[in-house]
Design goal:
With about 200 residues, the chain is of the alpha+beta class. It has 8 helices and 4 strands; from the N terminus they run ααααβααβαβαβ. It starts with a helix and ends in a 6-residue tail after the last strand.
């Protein structure tokens, strides 16, 4: 081996030794910190719920129930409408509604219906009447059928049936006392009034 080859071999050996020595001298640092997160001791405890604000803890305010009976102003309006609805009249010994009776019942009954639907416990009474001819029992039955026919019509236009009472007076409450057809016609009628309301 000549001198130049020895020098090359020594140089290669030196580089190899230096590389190996450098690889062994890599500094070892401390272990990396643990990943962030709860420790096992903390994880085993139950997580408390978020605090509840006082406003959220209160139950929602209950809405006040709708009034069951109209106030004084509304009752006055109902009385005005009832006064404007004329009595419906009937032919002798009949209880079918005549065209003029239908017209009388139509007057302001739509507004009356719209008011009553807001006060389901407020009642009206449909009174049935007869003239003086015939027995008391027969006329009570006839007055009842007349009041029933008027009630059926009012229910047909939308007034709830349970807000309409029927009462027959027969010939017991005449509006006139003469013994002629003109007076008898006035007594063969139905009349609508506000029912007696229970005390609040």
């Amino acid at each position: 081996m000549n001198h130049a080859q020895k020098r090359t071999l020594i140089a290669v050996a030196a580089v190899t030794l230096l590389t190996a020595a450098c690889a062994k001298k890599v500094a070892v640092g401390p272990p990396p910190p643990p990943a962030p997160g709860p420790t096992p001791a903390v994880a085993s405890k139950p997580v408390p719920p978020p605090p509840v604000h006082a406003a959220a803890a209160m139950p929602p305010a209950a809405t006040s129930p709708a009034p069951k009976y109209p106030n004084a102003v509304t009752r006055a309006r109902i009385d005005q409408l009832l006064a404007k609805i004329e009595d419906a009249y009937f032919d002798y010994d009949k209880y079918a509604l005549r065209p003029d009776a239908l017209q009388a019942l139509q007057a302001d009954s739509a507004e009356l219906r719209d008011i009553l639907k807001d006060y389901p416990n407020y009642k009206l009474t449909v009174e049935g009447h007869a003239d003086e001819r015939g027995s008391a029992e027969y006329n009570v039955a006839l007055g009842d059928r007349r009041a029933g026919a008027a009630k059926d019509y009012l229910v047909g236009i939308g007034i709830p049936a349970d807000q309409l009472n029927v009462l027959s007076y027969g010939k017991e409450k005449p509006v006139c006392q003469e013994h002629d057809e003109a007076c008898w016609q006035r007594n063969r009628r139905i009349h609508i009034v506000a029912a007696a309301q229970p005390q609040k």
